[in-house]
Amino acid sequence: xxxxxxxxxxxxxxxxxxxxxxxxxxxxxxxxxxxxxxxxxxxxxxxxxxxxxxxxxxxxxxxxxxxxxxxxxxxxxxxxxxxxxxxxxxxxxxxxxxxxxxxxxxxxxxxxxxxxxxxxxxxxxxxxxxxxxxxxxxxxxxxxxxxxxxxxxxxxxxxxxxxxxxxxxxxxxxxxx
Length: 177
What we know:
With 177 residues, the protein is of the alpha+beta class.
C-alpha cells in the first residue's frame, strides 16, 4: 500500500541517518476514506471503513514497521509516534461517521526509550472524557523532545527578550524505560 511504501521509505531514511521523519497515511484527505470519518462528501469515511479497511491496514503496516526497526537494531534509538489531532465523538452521526472530539484522543508510542506494553490513561465508559490519568498534549510533546535528546530546561526567546520554556510539562515518566 502507499502507507506501507511510505513506512519503508521512512526506515530507509533512518538507516541513512535522518533524525526526524514524518509519514502520513494518506496523500490527501479530500474525498477518500481516511481517519477523518464524518460520513459526508469531503470526508466520506464511516465507522464501517475504520473496521473494514483503515484499522486493518494501519495495524498491518505499523506492526511491520516496528518489527523491521527492531530486527535492524533501530527501534531502541527511534521513537515511533502515531497520533492524530483529534479523537472522535462517542456518538455515530446520522451519516454513519464520527465527528471531531477533543475530549479524548489516543497516541501510540514505541521504541526510543519507551517501555512497551503499557496503557496510560483511560476514557469513561462512553469515550466522552478522561476517567484515569489524562495526558496533556504538552506532556506528549515533552516525551517526544526528551526522546530526541533535547534539553527541556532550554528557554526560548522572543524578539522583545521575553523567555519561555520550550515545553510547559515534564515527559511522561510512566512510559520511560
